Amino acid sequence: MFKVSNLRKSFSSHTVLNNVSFEIERGSIVGLIGPSGGGKSVLLKILGGVCQADQGESSWNGAHCECTSLMFQEGALFDSISVFDNVAFPLVDGKVPTMTLPKAQQIEVRRRVDTMLAHVGLSAAADKIPAQLSGGMRRRVSLARALICNPQLLLLDEPTCGLDPVASSVIMQLIVDLHREHRPTTIMVSQDLRRLLPVTNRILALFHGGIVFSGSVSELVASATGELREFVSCRYDLDGSDSDVGQAAAYFVP
To answer: What pTM was computed for the model?
Structure first.
C-alpha cells in the first residue's frame, strides 16, 4: 500500500496543497483529476522528489519508496543527445554518450534500452535527436525513459497533452500494455477523461488543494455532485454512452 499523509505545500502566501492524504494499492493505476492550476503537477513533483513538501510524507507501508519515475508534462527530453541516450540516462548517472562506460556496462545498458525502445515502437529512431521526432514519438521516448529502471512508483503528468486523437490513443494503450508487463503503481494526471477513466482502477479528485473524491470510476459516475460533477461532465458523458465504463476498449479508438 502506498500512503500519502498530510502533504502541505505553499508558494509565498498561496497554499497549493492543504493536508492531502490518500492510500492506493500496489500495482494499481490511479487517475488524478482536477482543474488546471489545482496542484496536481505539484503533487506529482513532490512524490517524485523534484519538489519538497512543507509538511507531510509518503511511504510504502512505512518504508521509503526505493525507485520513483516522473514523466513530466511535455516530456522534458534532452535535446542535444540521441533518443537512445535519453532513454539510457537514468541507468548511467548522466554519463552520456554511453560509449564512455565500461564495456560490460555498455552491453547491459544497450540490451535494456533496445528492449524498451522496441516496446514503444521506436527501435528505428534510436540514433535520432528529439527535434527530429513528432510529438507523439517524443512522448513515447519519455515513457520509455520513465520505465527503464522498472520503477516502484510511476508518475505520469498529462501524457497525452497536446497530442492528436490518434497519438493520444497510442500513448494511452502503451501505458496500459507496459503497466500490464511491469506492474508499477501508477498515478496519472490527465484532462482527457474519455481515455483516462476506462483504464484506471481508482480516481482521486484534487480541488482547491484537497482530495474531494477517492473511489472507483463507477462510484464517480454514480455519485459525483456539484463542482466535481460539472468538471467531469464537461469531459466525460456521465449520463450517456461514456458511462458504460466496462467497454474500455472502445476508448482507445479516436
So the answer is: 0.88
